[in-house]
Amino acid sequence: MNCLSPSILSADFSRLGEQIRELDEAGAQYVHIDVMDGMFVPSISFGMPVIRSIRDCSDRIFDVHLMIEEPVRYIADFVEAGADLITVHAESCRHLDRTIDAIKEKGILAGVAVNPATPLEAITYILPKVDMVLIMTVNPGFGGQQLIPYTVQKIRDVKKLIDKKGLKTDIEVDGGIDLENVTEVLDAGANIIVAGSAVFGGDITENVSCFLNIMNEG
């Protein structure tokens, strides 16, 4: 099943609760929450208090993307705040296996992310443990970037790897996804689409509807 996960990094924070409810009513299945620490990535975004404050605004899956150093330190806190799915970067974990175990032990979904230039070999052995792989299609840290073309082949490659292992792992893509290129990444094998400015720029309901129409074709 194809699902849309709008990134609230592009939302209007003066109307955050209202816009999350609009996503809900428009039919978006996930809410993508980018947590940045200013160390693993250049930017600083938000953390547990914001997640906790918006949890009551939606019953959709809170898709929490941790772009932070050694995220294992905060897994329990993010679960308590309301995360349904926590994704950590292979590059930011000293002990990736231990970090994935810490997420799974909390009874929620676990994802692993890789940056554009990180080889898939970095996550080969962890694949059977995770529910989702996040392929970064831009270098993380800022919204509004353009998709890096070679990452589309990387989506194809991880799809082949998942199929070869007989797994049912979801493939999420994040970075520069819009109505013009979403079909390309879906065809490559992605089934969870993160979109920020392409959803929040303009009429949210209309933008979500346009994405879902494309994603549900056929």
Total number of helical segments? 8
Structural class of the helices, strands and pairings? alpha/beta
Give the averaged pLDDT, no decimals: 96
Question: Strands of the largest sheet, in order across it?
Answer: 1-8-7-6-5-4-3-2
What is the global morphology? globular
Give the N-to-C terminal Cα separation. Answer: 12 Å
How would you describe this structure to a colleague?
The protein has 218 residues and is of the alpha/beta class. It is globular, with a radius of gyration of 16 Å. The chain has helices spanning 16-26, 48-54, 75-81, 96-104, 151-164, 182-188, 197-200, 204-215, and strands at residues 3-6, 30-36, 61-67, 85-89, 109-114, 132-136, 170-174, 192-195. Helix content is 33%, strand content 20%. It has an eight-stranded parallel sheet with strand order 1-8-7-6-5-4-3-2. Helix 1 runs parallel beside helix 8 (204-215).
Task: Describe this protein with a few key phrases.
33% helix, alpha/beta, eight-stranded parallel sheet, single chain
How would you summarize the topology of this molecule?
Elements: E1 3-6, H1 16-26, E2 30-36, H2 48-54, E3 61-67, H3 75-81, E4 85-89, H4 96-104, E5 109-114, E6 132-136, H5 151-164, E7 170-174, H6 182-188, E8 192-195, H7 197-200, H8 204-215
Parallel strand pairs: 1-8, 2-3, 3-4, 4-5, 5-6, 6-7, 7-8
Helix pairs in contact: 1-8, 2-3
Task: Give a brief outline of the structure.
This protein is of the alpha/beta class and 218 residues long. Helices cover 33% and strands 20% of the residues.
